[in-house]
Write a structure and sequence with these properties.
By secondary structure, the protein is an alpha/beta fold. It has 15 helices and 10 strands. The radius of gyration is 23 Å and the shape is elongated. The model has no long low-confidence stretch (mean pLDDT 94).
């Protein structure tokens, strides 16, 4: 029955989908599923739990699916209640079991394709989505010009109408997204190893309050994360990941760096000159803006002193290193700049002071 259900999705057969469930079943809206370019969909049962009713069971299944722009399948835990009747086993309800909701759980879906981008709107007008498709195509080209062509040039942008929808799609609290224009996440939400597919989720109310240039800065930042997704590892410190993304986001925007780092400038002027590059934890704390801005200064300093090619080489060396984060950074600094981490940190602190003078 689950195999027939999967075929219904990939063949866009609402009649077949309906045949696998009881009348009035609490299941995903089929119209939302067929709005997506789903290339594959399958279920693998991982557990079956009997209920007090001998004709009812609760099944947990690993549902794997792939959009036609994806490079790998994503696996989602589904909780499915089934009832046995005259026509065999039928679905009574089916819901995502994890902390993140799927786009089809959140609202009506509209899909727009750009030259490269796939934009998935959730309760969002088509005109807005077309604007995002054109912008995503443009920034994808700009990121390629900076980083190189060794990434999958088929970015997926999810544009929910509300911050609440974004939060549920990411499995986060609404408050944790305050002030953020967009977030890139890996869809690998199962326990399997390896990376999933990158998705950029817009915080659409925040983005609507930005200028066109501001939206471009935000999406260039996120598109850099998409481009380097496979190149980044757990040994790549967030100050480098986010500092580089900020650098690329502002590249060519015409916004002076001193304008972009107002929070850290104010903090340094208040006597709070940091003693070390920001730790990973600082990027999700109450002072996250200072962490992002001070990381941007570090990336910008490397580019100013040694050139963009050296900055990119530094990132790639750190990401490909076999050691710890600190070991990889120290080694890459030695290769690219001839400096150690202490000298680099000292120069960075001096640069912060200069920008804050």
């Amino acid at each position: 029955m689950l195999a027939s259900r999967a075929v219904a999705v990939t063949s866009d057969s609402q009649a077949r989908w309906a045949q696998t469930a009881v009348s009035g079943a609490d299941v995903p809206d089929f119209a939302r599923l067929v709005a997506l370019p789903i290339a594959s969909w399958a279920y693998r049962v991982t557990s079956v739990v009997a209920s007090s009713d001998p004709d009812v069971v609760v099944v947990t299944a690993a549902m794997s699916y792939r959009l036609d722009v994806d490079t790998v399948e994503d696996i989602v835990a589904e909780r499915i209640t089934m009832r046995q009747g005259r026509d065999g086993w039928l679905v009574v309800s089916e819901h995502t079991a994890g902390s993140r909701m799927m786009p089809w759980d959140l609202g009506t879906l509209t899909v727009i394709r750009g030259r490269q981008a796939l934009v998935i709107g959730i309760d969002t007008a088509g005109a807005t989505l077309r604007e995002y498709a054109a912008l995503t195509d443009r920034v994808a080209g700009e990121v390629t010009a900076f980083w190189g062509s060794d990434w999958v040039h088929r970015p997926v942008l999810v544009v929910p109408a509300t911050t609440s929808q974004m939060a549920r799609g990411l499995g986060r609290s609404t408050g944790s997204l305050t002030g953020l224009g967009a977030v890139t996440n890996d869809t690998n939400i199962s326990a399997r190893s390896g990376r999933g597919n990158e998705r950029v989720w817009t915080n659409t109310p925040v983005m609507a309050g930005l200028s066109a240039a501001g939206r471009g800065i935000v999406l260039r930042h996120e598109m850099f994360h998409v481009a380097v997704g496979s190149a980044s590892t757990n040994a790549t410190p967030l100050w480098l990941e986010e500092g580089m993304a900020q650098y690329v986001g502002y590249l060519g925007s015409g916004v002076p760096i001193t304008t972009a780092i107002g929070d850290v400038v104010a903090d340094v002027r208040a006597g709070h000159l940091p003693t070390a590059l920001p730790s990973d934890g600082q990027f999700s704390g109450s002072q996250f803006a200072i962490a992002y801005e001070s990381a941007y200064v570090a990336a910008d300093m490397l580019a100013r002193q040694y050139g963009q090619v050296a900055l990119i080489r530094f990132y790639r060396l750190v990401a490909s290193g076999a050691g710890s984060s600190s070991t990889n950074v120290a080694s890459a600094l030695g290769v690219v700049t001839g400096q150690g981490l202490a000298a680099f940190t000292s120069a960075w602190r001096t640069q912060l002071q200069a920008f804050s003078a």
